[in-house]
Amino acid sequence: KLTTGDLELNTKRRQVKRGDKIINLTPQEFKLLEYLMANKEVVLTREMILNRIWIYSPDIESRVVDVYIGYLRKKIDLGFKKKLIHSIRGFGYTIRD
Predict the structure, then answer these.
(1) CA–CA gap between residue 22 and residue 58 (Å, rounded)
(2) What does the DSSP assignment read for 34-72?
């Protein structure tokens, strides 16, 4: 089980909760969130994320990371006062309390 603030990711159940709200994620979104949470407060570059989540291939563009971060933000941060997913300009992304 991984936690960041009031966000909880249960790896065994493949379940994500923020507060009392259950959040439904696609398998790719779940893997991305799990990777972010397992490396809480570490800045992950697009390349690190691509290599870990999409097994980087020339067909996959690094923009796919930005797109999926956007999906996660909508599901994880939208409607909550405290934002957990952060962009580190010029470097990548991180998640923190």
Answers:
(1) 35
(2) HHHHHTTTPPEEHHHHIIIII---TTS-THHHHHHHHHH
